[in-house]
Design goal:
By secondary structure, this protein is an alpha/beta fold. It contains 17 helices and eleven strands. Strands 7-6-5-8-9-11-10 form a seven-stranded mixed β-sheet. Strands 2-1-3-4 form a four-stranded mixed β-sheet. A hairpin with a 5-residue loop joins β1 and β2. α1 runs antiparallel to α6. The protein is elongated and about 75 Å long.
């Protein structure tokens, strides 16, 4: 099939109504489109069948995971160039081939079908989440979702995250390392919580134990960490034993909704609330409020999204839902703040650290790419490709202000009104860059 790249580019531009912003290389070796930048490589025309069958992100994701799509050159630049098609067009792109009425577009769609080859499309890659049972955000289904994401091998996460084993946004200085930035983030949280020796800290979604270890080792806190991942729990317990901190830290495989041994002096929830879901977020806030003593503090570290003009129209990202965080949902920052207040909390501080997450994700991608062959051996080629795409695309999303990340410091302020927070809890730079 001669010059498939030119034919594909022409058809794509007719369907999209605008020039394709990247160069294409097709399975026959032909190329078309602007030169001098990254190249989107369509290795097999099965990728087209996937995208026709599932227009939008899911079809693209399946082709990427299967290795039928690839990128030569700067992956971030390509994602940035495609962002207007993948993100800003929204529902217009997702339903493109479902609702074409213009005769010219119908003709282009038929030509694309011929170029794609015989149907039906290939089966989805094995890495796609299937077989979820139970109601969304029930305890049973949450456990399935957490296992899909986290129980893929601690060695793989060590490779990506580095020695800190912290899977959330770091807190950067101009010249710090990833490990420095993650330590600084954990310490920032401990200081915001005003941890003191002997304080009881509940770490909700404790991951591989990094916050628990930092709080116990550096502040003398007594920590209970809860996670739904058995692999995380086993890893955290070994780290704690190696640190000689078993008398200060308990790690449980437990849903936060089943924690009943309050009150706690402080609660940290770092990158966990994204799993809770909009329908359960008030229950989450009420539960944590009930577990704190009067005057106790909550530090909720959470990714946010931009608010939708119609919040009822919000949809979970298809690629993330199928391959990364099943059932994960993002809320606007204002919705999170309101829910915390509705539960009874006094929100004392909100710190936006969006740019910090872009830096963190780029470092994780660099770790993955530097040891790619081992990453593939530890998981699968498809899984390694998922993590590379999701982290790189997320970095671009943070950089473009499509999503953000915020730390909410909330207090269970007693009837006396004494919050226990300083009059000037932050020190701001006199000038910003």
């Amino acid at each position: 099939m001669a010059d498939a790249a030119s034919r594909l580019t022409t058809l794509a531009e007719e369907l999209l109504g605008e020039p394709l912003p990247v160069r294409l290389r097709a399975w026959d070796g032909s190329e078309a489109g602007p030169a001098g930048g990254p190249v989107l490589v369509v290795r097999d025309r099965r990728a087209l069948r996937r995208m026709i069958w599932k227009p939008g992100e899911l079809g693209l994701a399946r082709a990427w995971v299967a290795g039928e799509l690839d990128v030569e050159g700067d992956l971030y630049a390509l994602l940035d160039g495609l962002s207007g098609l993948l993100w800003e067009r929204g529902e217009e792109t997702r339903s493109l081939l479902d609702s074409v009425r213009d005769p010219k577009l119908r003709a282009a769609a038929r030509a694309l079908l011929r170029l794609a080859g015989p149907f039906p499309p290939p089966k989805p890659p094995a890495e796609e989440m299937r077989g979820r049972s139970g109601n969304r955000h029930s305890k049973r289904r949450d456990k399935q979702a957490i296992s899909h994401h986290y129980d893929v091998g601690n060695d793989f996460y060590e490779l990506v995250l580095g020695p800190s084993m912290v899977y959330s946004c770091a807190y950067w200085t101009e010249d710090g390392t990833l490990e420095d930035a993650q330590r600084d983030k954990l310490d920032l949280i401990a200081r915001k919580l005003n941890l003191q020796e002997g304080d009881r800290l509940l770490d909700v979604g404790c991951g591989w134990g990094s916050m628990a270890i930092h709080a116990a080792r550096e502040y003398g806190a007594r920590v209970v960490g809860v996670t739904l991942s058995r692999e995380q729990a086993a890893y955290a317990r070994k780290r704690i034993a190696d640190e000689g901190l078993t008398d200060l830290i308990e790690i449980r495989v437990q849903d936060y909704r089943d924690v009943t041994d309050g009150p706690y002096d402080a609660i940290s929830s770092i990158g966990m609330a994204e799993h809770v879901g909009a329908v359960k977020y008030r229950e989450y806030a009420d539960t944590l409020y009930g577990l704190l003593k009067p005057g106790g503090r909550l530090l909720n570290h959470q990714i946010s999204r931009r608010p939708e003009p119609d919040e009822e129209a919000y949809e979970i990202d298809a690629f993330i839902d199928a391959y990364v965080f099943p059932d994960g949902e993002l809320s606007p920052m204002g919705s999170t703040l309101t829910t915390l207040e509705d539960a009874g909390f006094e929100v004392r501080d909100v710190e936006a650290i969006r740019e910090h997450y872009a830096l963190t994700l780029r470092r994780w991608v660099a770790n993955l790419e530097a040891d790619w062959d081992r990453a593939v051996r530890l998981t699968s080629p498809g899984r390694a490709r998922i993590w590379r795409l999701y982290m790189a695309a997320s970095a671009v999303s943070f950089e473009r202000n499509r999503i953000g990340v915020n730390q909410f410091l909330a207090v269970k302020t007693p009837v006396s009104g004494v919050s226990g927070t300083a009059l000037r809890p932050r020190v701001w730079n006199e000038k910003t860059g």
